[in-house]
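Lab notes, practical 5.
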Amino acid sequence: MTIINIIAGFLTGVAASMGLGGGFILIIFLTVFAGTAQEQAGGINLLFFLPIALISIIIHSKNKLIDWRVIPAICIAGAFGVAGGAALLYVIDESWLRKLFAGLLVFVGLREMFHRKKATNN
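Output from the prediction step:
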């Protein structure tokens, strides 16, 4: 199973660095195929995100795709989001977390399928 875990980690890392939802894929892999608890899978996903985010920042910065002016606001909002999410882990049962996560996946999937982006002239 170690080889499979390494391959899954590599592929989800590649997907995450390209903005293709590698974190969703990793959580699904960990909970469904590796038998990891939802809370633990979320924690692993957060730790997994750190090196991927650093690599992505370096690549996107070189390509001048980052608006550095919005970074402080995003960091503050993210810190509050993480604190709120961590607090909810102690209040919500794991079975409800799984259902909420499944609902989020369905919502995002349907939105991606049916939402039309407006064309921009850049």
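Observations recorded by the TA: Helices lie at 2-17, 22-33, 38-62, 71-89, 94-114. Residues 38-62 form the longest helix (25 residues).
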